[in-house]
Amino acid sequence: METVIRGAIPVLPAADCAASLKWWVDCCGFEETFRDASPPSYAGIRRGDAHLHIAAMTDKKLARTVGDQTMVRIAVKGIDALYAEFQKRGGKVHPNGPLQTKPWGTREFGAIDPNGVCVTFQE
Fold first, then answer.
1. Are 121 and 108 in contact (CB under 8 A)?
2. What is the pTM of this model?
3. Domain with 41 in it
4. Helix, strand, coil shares of the chain as percentages rounded to 5?
């Protein structure tokens, strides 16, 4: 039997897991699928076929450093509708990341989560 990879679940660093979880749910429309405690130090979220985990780091300064160097790209269908929804939900688009068609052919916009993770939604 041939091995088939069915997906990936990025684990995003967080200085404050609860704040990151709130941002992903409230601004990005993801749903919480699990958490380890209240407040969480590890949680899972999903929207459609995209699954992400958020992991708290005890060293807050290091968490921010790691967050600032982390990027995640999320493929979507209906980028224009998501862009409008994100803003309506109170999400702030990155100053360098308004919705635009890139030279490589994707239409995308960017945002930064509460821990500095660069999030790009693309179609």
1. yes
2. 0.93
3. 11-122
4. 25, 35, 45
